[in-house]
Please model this.
Amino acid sequence: MKNAYDFVVIGAGPAGLMIAKELSGAGQDVLLVDVKRDIPKINRSCCTMLINEPNTHGETVRFVDNDLHFEKTGFTVKYGHPYVKMVKSSRLSPGGYKLTMGNEKEGVALPYTKEIILRNLLEESMANGCDVLTETAGIRAENIDGGVKVTLRDNYTRSLKEIRCKAAFAADGVNSQIVTGLELFKTRKYIGSFRVASYFLDEVDYPYWDSWITCVGKGHTPWGRGQVYMVPKYLPDAKEGDKPILDVFCGTPCGMPAKMGLDWFLNDGPFNEWFTNAKIVHKAACVLNFYTCIMNPVEGNIVVVGDAAAFIETYCQSALMYGYRAAHAALKVQDKGKGYEDYTNFWRESFEYCWPGEIEKALQGFGLGNMQDEELDYIFSLTDNEMYEGYVSENTAPYVMQKAIMSHIDQIRKERPQIAELIEKHWSASAEDIVKG
Ligand SMILES: Cc1cc2nc3c(=O)[nH]c(=O)nc-3n(C[C@H](O)[C@H](O)[C@H](O)COP(=O)(O)OP(=O)(O)OC[C@H]3O[C@@H](n4cnc5c(N)ncnc54)[C@H](O)[C@@H]3O)c2cc1C
Model:
């Protein structure tokens, strides 16, 4: 490793790897740094569904010849592995009633294997000559005369090292350490924190292999808060024709142990009979600190990309897309002296959580779980045999749910006026109120 590079990329998730691949492919001298030992290995919970709804965060992504094709930006990411087509997305109440969105033709979302994408991008970057430093944390990035000084810390010796570069990329995820040291961090508002634990389970006796299942209601966790969801997907060593495993997640507000919630759901929850013979083949977890988006994700020659700039998550596909755009903006700056405006403007215009009201809307989709189980059973009993057109998307699914429930509001007002009042209030609750439960 040298003391100076053209570019330093901190974080080798989808965003950072995409940047490293594009810049090294353009002949630039690049250092990619990650705190992990094995970059493609997934320790951080992620459903990894391709959100195939057209124009998600300004882009339409499809599988073409088994690779991920980004139609609008115009690039392809190598995949070459089985993926799942889910045709339904159901919210499941503790009593087993459902609110279902469906799309038989396109699928509601297509879960794939994140490890494969990361491995392919890492191999391509290294083949392009990118230097990769693992087990090293990016601590700080500071604008200095003529570029950026990046401070790194070795995980084991704790020794610090300074690297100089023309520009640095903060791609270190939703709890970005690099962002907390920048001025632009002061523009953010803290919303709340969440913990997630997840297991890949084999040998599950499960009725919904074609669906994304979100368990909504207090009865799914021992403390009555949080959310459980399930997604079928393939292991990294799967072959075409293999059976998918089930990735089961429990997300809880911080202060409550997500793993305890997950174990309780599997052993004592309302659907525990599905898991009697289940075998855990992999475990993952994460903590998410939610802040409002960074509206101007470039400070001098430091560019913030992917989840590091976002409220919750950009999705893997959009981290790849913003990474691709950030890399090409940096090449333009190098060539023409300017180019970050396009990246910033596109970010603000395309990333839905930058838009007023979007955070509240998405949280309203989650907030239904704050109702009593009996109330949810009643509401979902009205939609149980219906199917609404929709996709898995934090930004559009809450609308579909609202439409589905409101289509029964006259009946609810007549039969259960208190529930009708609660529902009508729910759609105008603030983000803070929903997070507080
Ligand atoms: C529960 C859950 C479910 C999700 N489901 C989906 C889904 O269905 N579909 C989808 O597309 N997305 C999903 N996501 C979102 C997705 O995981 C992220 O949007 C995506 O991984 C963001 O990519 P990124 O490169 O910006 O950040 P990350 O993937 O978080 O990568 C950041 C990298 O930086 C490294 N790092 C962190 N700090 C440092 C540091 N200080 N120094 C050096 N390296 C560091 C990390 O080790 C990591 O490799 C989900 C997320 C969660 C939590």
